[in-house]
Amino acid sequence: MTAEELQAIIEAGLPCEHITLEGDGRHWYATIVSAEFDGLRAIQRHQRVYKTLGAKMHTDEVHALSMKTFTPAEWASAPR
């Protein structure tokens, strides 16, 4: 799976204001900014992203996904 394919899958199931992906095709690191994360704890945010991937996580197409998730307000104040 390419970064573009993975990004398209995530964006199809979760409106994102910003997303970056790095990885080798099976192991990924993502930074995701979405208003849907408002009021959610980190684990709930991650579950929301995993939900967009559905079977791709279970069939090992995406072996590992490490992520940082932000609301738009958190992203605006995050050091970069």
Automatic annotation (TrEMBL):
Q: Which domain of life is it from?
A: Bacteria
User: Which Gene3D superfamilies does this chain map to?
Assistant: BolA-like
- One Pfam family matching this protein: BolA
Q: Which InterPro entries match?
A: BolA, BolA-like_sf, BolA/IbaG_stress_morph_reg
**To which protein family does this belong?**
Belongs to the BolA/IbaG family.
Note the PANTHER family from the entry. Answer: BOLA TRANSCRIPTION REGULATOR, BOLA-LIKE PROTEIN 1
> What protein does this entry describe?
BolA family transcriptional regulator
Organism, per UniProt?
Variovorax guangxiensis
